[in-house]
Design a protein that fits this description.
There is one protein chain. This protein is of the alpha+beta class. The protein has one domain: Thiol Ester Dehydrase, Chain A, CATH 3.10.129.10. 32% of the residues lie in helices and 25% in strands. It has a six-stranded antiparallel β-sheet with strand order 1-2-4-5-6-3, with helices on one face. Bound molecules: Phenylacetyl coenzyme A. It comes from Actinomadura luteofluorescens. This is Acyl-coenzyme A thioesterase PaaI-like protein. Pfam families: RHA1_ro05818_N. One of its GO terms (molecular function) is hydrolase activity.
Length: 203
């Protein structure tokens, strides 16, 4: 089976709502206390939206089964998930049979050091990208160790290339490397040990 590297997108429905929520988060972080908007009115409107969503939400168990349906890529994860507002979201393409990559430009919600990507966000993007590279290469597992080296600040507002490649499989031990680059330079590099183990999807 060939892994489908990109979650199927819907131009409408929850994907469109998640994209709107991403805009809201970005606009809120952009605004801070310097905005001319009436923030208590904004809070009321956002709480009204949350009230509507919570009232219409399915039972948690039904949603868990639904979000893990099938065997391919998920649509809800915090890195590629088009229906998850905290996902940038990344869209992977295959560079070769063991290597995948994505391009993303991150904004203020992902800031750590000034005008730079938070180190934990870089770790999140790399952990997930290494994991998906394993699936693409044909043997996946759970992260047992993830070693990161932060070479230089990772800029916000500039295109980043996030890539990963499976380098070896030895029994249940899978070794995978990856990087976040800006302008062709390594910002963060990663080495991961994954152990082949597959927690069952809720059915
Ligand atoms: C799965 C495992 C890591 C290993 O447990 P078990 O199955 O009980 O393994 P067992 O003890 O039977 O050892 C087997 C072999 O492995 C070796 N070995 C084991 N550990 C280490 C080590 N640290 N360092 C070195 N070696 C280690 C051990 O010595 C043994 O070697 P041997 O065969 O004797 O030569 C478990 O601790 C766990 O679930 N941890 C939580 C993982 C977790 O939450 N991760 C984050 C979520 S995943 C994610 O986000 C990424 C993702 C994104 C997208 C898509 C997909 C993925």
């Amino acid at each position: 089976m060939t892994l489908d590297l990109q979650a199927e997108h819907q131009a409408t429905g929850v994907d469109a709502a998640a994209a709107a929520a991403r805009r809201v988060v970005d606009a809120l972080v952009r605004s801070g206390d310097l905005s001319g908007a009436d923030m208590s009115e904004v809070a009321d409107r956002l709480n009204a939206v949350a009230d509507d969503l919570e009232a219409a939400a399915p039972p948690l168990r039904d949603r868990l089964v639904d979000m893990w349906r099938g065997d391919g890529n998920t649509r809800h994860d915090p890195v590629t998930g088009p229906e998850n507002p905290i996902a940038p979201p990344l869209e992977y393409t295959a560079a070769d049979s063991r290597t995948i990559e994505a391009t993303a430009t991150l904004g203020l919600p992902y800031q750590g050091p000034p005008s730079s990507v938070h180190g934990g966000i870089s770790a999140l993007l790399l952990d997930h990208t290494l994991g998906v590279a394993n699936g693409w290469a044909g043997k996946s597992g759970m992260t047992a160790e993830l070693t990161l080296r932060y070479h230089r600040l990772t800029p916000l507002f500039e295109p980043l290339t996030i890539s990963a490649r499976q380098v070896s499989v030895d029994g249940r031990r899978i070794r995978t490397v990856g990087a976040i680059q800006a302008g062709g330079e390594d910002c963060v590099t990663a080495e991961g040990l994954f152990i082949a183990k597959y927690p069952p999807r809720p059915r």
